[in-house]
């Protein structure tokens, strides 16, 4: 596939994981070498020339793009994971889901105070996961340079949630609907 637009590489799967959901599947983007390279380059573009010490990836697809970005910049990579997935001592941050609560964790020694970090994930929906990650980073004394996402679902309001936290938000494309 040849395209100049990352959005063209993303497929939509109807009624996954539940009826009424339009799942934006970035695995098709990851599978195409040109599309994946374009995605990584475009995610990095706004941060050219910025000092960044580490790249933070949010579970789980954020690990894929975060690892690629960290490699491209010759930086370390730090995962923020769901509760119980990291060995060793962690900090935890709970956040609300539509029905219930979830918890994200980071190793307590993953970021040194004053380190500048870039937060990445594949999709920005309600902003709950990213906001929890931001709070964990700030508790460790990290300074967030920006938050970069492949896809934004603007109807769900996540961008506003992050901007209200003072974050610079960069997205490559938007899809309407949930």
Structure description:
The structure is a single chain. The protein is an alpha/beta fold. It has one domain (43-174): Rossmann fold (3-Layer(aba) Sandwich), CATH 3.40.50.2020. It has 5 helices and 9 strands; from the N terminus they run ββααβαββββαβαβ. The protein has helices at 27-31, 33-44, 61-73, 128-139, 158-164; strands at 11-14, 22-25, 54-58, 76-82, 90-97, 100-107, 116-124, 143-152, 169-174. The strands form 2 sheets. A 7-stranded mixed beta sheet has the order 5-6-4-3-7-8-9, with helices on both faces. Strands 1-2 form a two-stranded antiparallel ribbon. The longest helix has 13 residues, at 61-73. It starts with 10 loop residues before the first strand and ends with a strand.
């Amino acid at each position: 596939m040849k395209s100049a637009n990352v959005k063209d590489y993303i497929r939509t799967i109807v009624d996954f994981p539940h009826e009424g959901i339009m799942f934006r599947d970035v695995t098709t983007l990851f599978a195409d070498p040109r599309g994946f390279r374009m995605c990584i380059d475009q995610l990095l573009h706004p941060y050219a020339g910025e000092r960044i010490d580490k790249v933070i990836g949010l579970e789980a697809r954020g690990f894929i793009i975060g690892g690629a970005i960290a490699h491209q910049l010759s930086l370390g990579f730090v995962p923020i994971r769901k509760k119980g997935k990291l060995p060793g001592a962690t900090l935890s941050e709970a956040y609300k889901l539509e029905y219930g609560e979830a918890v994200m964790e980071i190793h307590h020694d993953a970021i040194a105070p004053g380190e500048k970090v870039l937060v990445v994930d594949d999709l920005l929906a309600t902003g709950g996961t990213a906001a929890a990650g931001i709070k964990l980073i700030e508790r460790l004394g990290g300074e967030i340079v920006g938050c970069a996402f492949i896809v934004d679902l603007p109807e769900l309001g996540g961008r506003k949630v992050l901007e209200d936290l003072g974050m610079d938000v960069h997205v490559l494309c938007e899809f309407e609907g949930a």
